[in-house]
Structure of Inosine-5'-monophosphate dehydrogenase:
Amino acid sequence: EKLEKAIRGYTFDDVLLVPQATEVEPKDVDVSTQITPNVRLNIPILSAAMDTVTEWEMAVAMAREGGLGVIHRNMSIEEQVEQVKKVKRAERFIIEDIITIKPEETVEYALFLMEKNDIDGLPVVDDDGMVVGIVSKKDIASRDGKLVKELMTRDVITVPESVEVEEALRIMVENRIDRLPVVDREGKLVGLITMSDLVARKKYKNAVRNENGELLVAAAVGPFDIRRAVELDRAGADIIVVDTAHAHNLRAIRAMKEIRQKIGADLIVGNIANPKAVDDLTFADAVKVGIGPGSICTTRVVAGVGVPQITAIALVADRAQEYGLYVIADGGIKYSGDIVKAIAAGADAVMLGNLLAGTKEAPGKEVIINGRKYKQYRGMGSLGAMMKGSAERYYQGSHMKTRKFVPEGVEGVVPYRGTVSEVLYQLIGGLKAGMGYVGARNIKELKEKGEFVIITGAGLRESHPHDIIITNEAPNYPLE
Ligand code: RVP
């Protein structure tokens, strides 16, 4: 009887999407997606909270491309806070660590400072911190022996702290200046806006930013680590992701509720694979789905527990919709087509570990094997990661007393794949192609319109290239 009640579970390779009549061209589709009440991404992809996937470089790259990085938690609270701040500083249009010079200094010294810091101009401030002038390389070239105050531009155009990007740009263009000091009410220097920074920002048209122009970033915490959550929230994390191997643990849920009350940021909790878990997690903004699909995960063989990912996403998404919760599909994505399937099954976005671990921006070590470049990638439940502190994710020896762990993940390498930007270009290209075939103009339509066909092993074999020796590896179809 138990077996009669059992449902059938399908994963990515068991299904395909059925093509539909369409008027949608891939180039015209909108892949932006809401993942929490306050965060809308321009692409439906998050990078995994793993110590070989997401630290600040990955988070910056993801946000610049319109996605989101979740900084892993296998480090001290202070280190993780610093990582969040680094992302926030990466593209802040008002620089706060400003190099200044006093009016009584010499021109030689001004030049020395500019050369040393690779900048073209300096605000001149008096002993009270008031802006009294500005000097640029142009003003002082070959004027040795003079003092800064003799050559500086005295009529400095300044802006208040509340200035917005467009306004700053307009002022600089109209006045033909490339440096704009930011002053407080009393006229004290508090920041600097430079043209070169604004130009750099324009390069990433798809980037996701907050109202201050800072890139968005998320950070992972354990369910019981309330202090970490509070500190990360304070440091400016836009989303706190409670990261545990089993979020439907009732003791963990009590702690998560406390986190919810103490933070202002949006809250994602996971992972789950049973729709019943959603009923107990309605205090969150989004749930993350995936027990065991991860490429480095051994939970299903070690513990015998899990739900094939397409079924897990579909069941959870149905329930989540009743409560207005967003859904993130986490783990098991091998190709761009799997992203299309995950969203069609009901996810609002996907989380990737493996596909991003091989990029330049991932923190894993590079290794050469047989002349080919790889990057280290490991599960957070692997022995190596657990020894570094992630055992608590699996409800094991959080105090490291025993050091005898039962791993639920493995350690290895993945092929080097170039930059995050290149990888995402292919993944989003595949997603857009899929949306074209299905006739979905946007993510919402893909969730509604996607119809599945369940395939056999023969169907899967037919799906992949067959009866050919591939001689040129395609950028979106790795051979390993
Ligand atoms: P994948 O993209 O298939 O590599 O899966 C990544 C996901 O696997 C992570 O986001 C996380 O949910 C899960 N994970 C991480 N470590 C482990 C483990 O050691 N079992 N699993």
Q: What stands out?
A: The chain has two domains: 9-91+207-448, 107-199. The mean pLDDT is 93. Residues 48, 50, 271, 290, 294-297, 299, 330-333, 351-354, 379-382, 408-409 surround ribavirin monophosphate (CB under 6 Å).
